[in-house]
Design a protein that fits this description.
The protein is of the alpha+beta class. It has one domain. 15% of the residues lie in helices and 47% in strands. The chain is built from 2 helices and 10 strands, in the order H-E-E-E-E-E-H-E-E-E-E-E. The strands form 2 sheets. Strands 2-1-10-9-8 form a 5-stranded antiparallel beta sheet, with helices on one face. It has a 5-stranded antiparallel beta sheet with strand order 3-4-5-6-7, covered by helices on one side. It is globular and about 60 Å long. It starts with a helix and ends with a strand.
C-alpha cells in the first residue's frame, strides 16, 4: 500500500510540473511586401539618382482625397517620392484622380485601385496641375526651391507607366510601378519675378502607390 501511495504522489507531481510548462507559441509566417524604390534621370543635363538607403533616401507615398456628396464623384490623387533628411533634392510624382461614389463606399475598393493603376499603364495620362486629372511632377532643388510641371504645355512632355504589380501585406495594399517621364518644370524667380524652367529628361522611377 505504501508503494502505491508513493507511486501516486510521484505521478501527481509529474502531472503538476508538466501542466506548469509553457509551450512556445510559434506565430504564423507574415507576408511582408518588399518596398524597394529608386530613381534616375537628368535635370538640366545633370544626372540625378536616388537609391534606397543611400544618403538616407527612402520612398514615401500618400494620397489626397477630394470628397463630394453623391452623386458627384469623389476623387483621390496618389503621390510617390524619395526624400532624404540630409539632402533637400527630391522628385515627387502624382497620379490622379481615381473617381468613386461616396454613397457606395467610403473608400475606393481594391478592385477600383487596381483598375485605376492598370489603366495608367494602358493609356498614358495627360499632365495635369495638382494631378487632378492626370500626372504631375514636383522637383525640389538643392536650395529647397520648388519646381512644378504644368498642363497644356506647348513643349513636348511624355509619361508612361509599366510593370504594374499589386501586392498586399498587413500594412496595406500597394501598386508597384515603373514610371518613365520627360518634361519641363517651372518656378517663380523671387529676384526677377519671372518664371524659370528646367528640363527633366529620361526620368525613371520605380516605386509604389498605397491604397
Amino acid at each position: 500500500m505504501r508503494i502505491f501511495y508513493i507511486s501516486f504522489a510521484l505521478l501527481a507531481l509529474l502531472v503538476g510540473v508538466s501542466s506548469c510548462i509553457e509551450h512556445e507559441v510559434v506565430p504564423p509566417p507574415t507576408n511582408t511586401v518588399n518596398l524597394d524604390c529608386n530613381f534616375t534621370g537628368y535635370v538640366s543635363g545633370t544626372q540625378v539618382e536616388f537609391t534606397q538607403n543611400i544618403n538616407s533616401y527612402l520612398g514615401n507615398t500618400s494620397s489626397e482625397s477630394f470628397v463630394q456628396p453623391s452623386p458627384l464623384p469623389s476623387r483621390r490623387v496618389y503621390m510617390f517620392e524619395m526624400t532624404s533628411p540630409i539632402n533637400p533634392v527630391s522628385i515627387r510624382i502624382k497620379l490622379g484622380a481615381l473617381n468613386w461614389d461616396l454613397a457606395a463606399t467610403s473608400e475606393p475598393s481594391l478592385t477600383m485601385f487596381n483598375d485605376f493603376n492598370m489603366n495608367a499603364s494602358t493609356t498614358a495620362p495627360a499632365y495635369s496641375n495638382a494631378a487632378i486629372a492626370g500626372f504631375e511632377v514636383t522637383y525640389t532643388d538643392n536650395t529647397s526651391r520648388v519646381w512644378l510641371s504644368k498642363e497644356n504645355n506647348p513643349v513636348p512632355q511624355t509619361v508612361t507607366f509599366s510593370n504594374i504589380k499589386q501586392q498586399s501585406d498587413g500594412s496595406g495594399d500597394y501598386s508597384f510601378f515603373d514610371c518613365n517621364f520627360s518634361c519641363y518644370v517651372y518656378s517663380l524667380n523671387p529676384q526677377t519675378n519671372l518664371i524659370d524652367s528646367l528640363p527633366i529628361q529620361n526620368g525613371k522611377y520605380h516605386g509604389w502607390f498605397k491604397r
